Amino acid sequence: SDALLIGKVETMDASDGHENALSAKKSGKTSLLDSGEDFEVLDEEDIDDDLPPLEDAGGGDGNVADNTEKKNAEEESEASAQMDEWLDVLGNDQLKKKVLEPGKGRASRPQKGQDVEINLKTQLMDGTLVEEQNNLSFTLGDGDVIQALDLTVQLMEMGEKALIHTDAKYAYGARGSLEPEVPPNAQLSLEVELVKATDAPDVELMPPSDRIALAIRKRERGNVHYQRADYAFAVNSYSIALQITESNSKVDISPEEEEELLDVKVKCLNNMAASQLKLDHYDAALKSCVSALAHQPDNIKALFRMGKVLALQGEYTEAIQTLRKALKLEPSNKTIHAELSKLVKKHSEQRGAEQAMYKKMLGNPSKGSTTKSRAKSSWGLSWKWLFGATAVAIGGVALSVVIAARN
User: Fold this and answer.
1) Which residues are listed as membrane-spanning (predicted)?
2) Helix, strand, coil percentages in the chain from 3-state DSSP, rounded to 5
3) Is residue 262 domain-resident?
4) What tens digit of pLDDT does each residue of 331-357 get?
5) Element (H, E) at 121
6) Which residues are within 8 A (CB) of 52 and not within 5 positions of it... i.e. 6 or more apart?
7) Distance CA 154, CA 139 (A)
8) Smallest Cα–Cα separation from 324: which of 337, 311, 334, 312?
9) pLDDT over 80 (residue 90)
């Protein structure tokens, strides 16, 4: 959403920019909608349809000079106002930018995906110095630095010096940082100078050693995000590293270098699966594990995470088989052993519950047979009494007939 907002800033037309610039000047604040253009848009009623030809306008060079001076004065006034005012970058008062020294114009702003170089001074809001870094290089928009820099450097002009105030949300968050040393939930003041912006090199033409080093840097940045619990940013960094490892090489690459790139790729897939698990993206995590195992079938980390994903999806039998394979490769691994024991117990309890449910649904066979035998014996007893009573009745009738005949 932040990138989309910045994109909207770049595509605002001149009229919207002018109107917002006027309202901003009245309110004493600058907004993202200030286009900074050096011409005015007139209302329709102010436009004369019958303008005289240029040669008949009169004034000649004098009017041109006056207009130029007026234009320069307006630009200087606007630049001065911009330097005295804060720009609320995201509109939530948590990330603000103020120009200390103007740059070379809007056309010199860097683009997302370019490699930029800045001089940076980081301080706490009470003035405590955190660190100073000269010629700090990073790819704009890749998440190589804190989000405050990724968002605001896109709005800087070449040669510009700016002061940036950021909430902890766009810096080091609730956890803070050990390197550099930043307390938890710390707001920061950043002094930034944009020194250079160049197009990123073509990965396919990079020497293999440089390509490997770049992929490792992106993966390590993902690890930093993971440690801060910024799992979505971690996935982004790992994805960029994967793209670097998977790009075709248009230069000669040795088998050893190919093997090293493959190793970086598998590590990225494993780390991505761990991040996706934290985000509850089970299907994506399973896909990452399968990809890692396609390259290294006996990779223990991939097998372990795949077992966890399958268990979370309710595939207990496959999960147990996967974890047993991992434990067989590394019998002393206590983490795998504990996870497997827990899963076997859970699976056993589930099977017991399912069997009890089935018995309840189908009824108890032994109880049914007992009831049936009791019913059978009861019917047998009833028939015996019935036959006995019938015989007695028949006998009585026969005796009565015999007595009647004798009489």
Assistant:
1) 383-405
2) 60, 10, 30
3) no
4) 999 999 999 999 988 877 776 666 667
5) strand 115-124
6) none
7) 11
8) 337
9) yes
Total domains in the chain come to 1
Query: What per-residue confidence (pLDDT) applies to 348?
Result: 79
Supply the CATH number for residue 146's domain.
3.10.50.40
| Residue-level length of the chain | 407
> Encoding tokens for residue 5?
């907002």
DSSP alpha helix (H) spans, 229-333: 231-246, 255-278, 282-295, 300-312, 316-329
- Confidence class for position 81, pLDDT limits 50, 70, 90: low
Task: Assess contact for 346 and 307: CB atoms under 8 A.
Answer: no
Tell me whether residue 299 is in a domain.
Answer: no
Contacts (Cβ under 8 Å, ≥6 apart) of 275 = 222, 226, 231, 232, 234, 235, 238
Report helix, strand or coil for 315: coil
Which of 182, 180, 151, 185 minimizes the C-alpha distance to 168?
Answer: 185
The verdict on residue 4 lying in a domain is no
Q: Mean of the pLDDT values across residues 218-235?
A: 95
Encoded tokens for 263? 């190793």
Q: Tell me: pLDDT of 126 over 80.
A: yes
Token pair, residue 323, equals: 């974890």
- Does residue 316 form part of some domain? no
Mean of pLDDT over the chain: 79
Name which of 67-76, 106-115, 299-308 the model is least confident about: 67-76
Question: Residue 4 is encoded by which pair of tokens?
Answer: 């989309």
Cα end-to-end distance, the chain, whole Å: 120
Domain that holds residue 142: 82-200
Classify 165 as helix, strand or coil: strand
pTM for the model: 0.67
When pLDDT is averaged across residues 138-147 and rounded to a whole number, the result is 96
Stronger pLDDT, 14 or 211, i.e. the higher one: 211
- Longest C-alpha distance within the chain, in Å? 166
